[in-house]
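Re: the pair you flagged

First of the two:
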Amino acid sequence: MNFEKGFITILTGMYSFQDCIHFLASVRKFHQEPIIILIDRVPPIFYPFLKAFKNVILKPAPANENTVLASREAKLALYATSQFQKTIYLDSDICLLSNIDDVFEALETEDLLLTEDVQPNIIKATNLLRGKQQDILADVLPTLQAVGLPLQEDSIQYNGGFIAFSKTEITAKFFDEFKRYFEIIKNNQDKLLLKDQGAFAAAIATVQPKLKVLPPTYNYLSKWKEAYNIHEGIKVLHCTYPYRPQYAKDVTRSVYTRIFDKLAPLFLPNQITNPWRTK
């Protein structure tokens, strides 16, 4: 069944399960559209915790022992797995702080809506390469170009935690190119970390979709709050639940989430020690 609009998130493994519960609670506070969860390495016995929220659709994510790689490949499959004409993808460690219907409305005229990374300049994206960041700054762009990514000095690094897209021929082509360039990332693990921003930027450079860059209030990473200079209210907070400010925890607070949080330490692994985060 296809729908006019809806949300997608990714849950690969149990480390982010608590994040996902609160993600669902935050979306349901402001929206009633369907929510697709691309899911892998979560025992079916836990599915009812997710399905307790109305209109949640579980779909298999690409299976992989490395839950980070599974998550990356699920992101490549967003276009193919979306049942919506207008899709808002959000990482599962995101908390909505307000209604974002304006994003759906903007997809009437745009192929993609994105937010820039905290460090948007691709030439300074040391986070994509292996090695000590202070030693590899000059190597970033030459390395990315040498492996085959068509990036230039003015290329932008976007944060993949927020991606809104409409179903068009252009976005279909964009996701095809995104997948192709990510294969380059996977095949150059001696030089590059298993991140998708370089492939994402390369796909944008190749396809040149109609895109709108939203302000950081739509993807506010509280870990990097010192890097922002904003005066508007935050709409989308990007922060894993254990580190989330209390005002955001209050947004998803309910009898259900309070009971879940009490029980979570008994059956969930500690997501802060997730070994795949360093891969």
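Second of the two:
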Amino acid sequence: METKAIRVFLFALLLIAAPFLQVARGESDSEVDTSETVEESSDLGIVGEDVQDFGDGNFSPAPGVDTICVFPKNSAKSVTAGEETELLVGLKNDGESSLNVIAIKASVHLPFDHNLLVQNLTAQAFNNGSVPASAQATFPYIFAVSKFLQPGTFDLVGTVYYEIDQQPYQSTFYNGTIEVVEAGAFLSIESVFLVTLGCALLVLLGLWIHGQIQHLSKKTKRAPKVEVGTRATDASMDEWLQGTAYTQSLNKSSKKKK
């Protein structure tokens, strides 16, 4: 009886624990699927040597495919020479077939003439870069301009290469200006020049004001006027008025005072 009771108890315990075992098994299976998905997504961004050969062609954009470019955390589109810069390329596929992103590449040009190439940037290839129909996806592109590039404004031309039904296409996702700044410099050459010019103008203005003040002070410090006494004039007047009624009245008044 005791053995039979123990068997019944163990059987009931297994029935109670069965749902929990299935849940645990399901969770472990989901973890395996997630890890496999992460491994597949980590294949994106592998650079291949054959990308340059693919990028030498000149293909047209596919109909129904739109692109957009965003500089994350860098709205000023400032690029430090010699350091990596990241941008995000968004693709929207409104076509009937899925597309496969092959690579992204870019180049730097002078702003006034795109025929004057400054630098070809590193191409970046993608594995498993598939965008289904009526879907959109974002791909990162990391590049670095030469550390010897002079600071200033340049034009960046970015192109994404993709295939639809084994037919190659390309779309320009960015064609605009970027500001290249010197690495580790708080001020650019133009800023230093403007600050120096402003200081020089302030010094010249101060010297001019100082000169004007000195000139005005010299005018105020003129030699004092020597007042001429009235004795000489009185003597000449007496000689001229001698024998007149005026001298006679003066003599009479002097006698009266005595």
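The first helix runs from residue 2 to 41.

-B.
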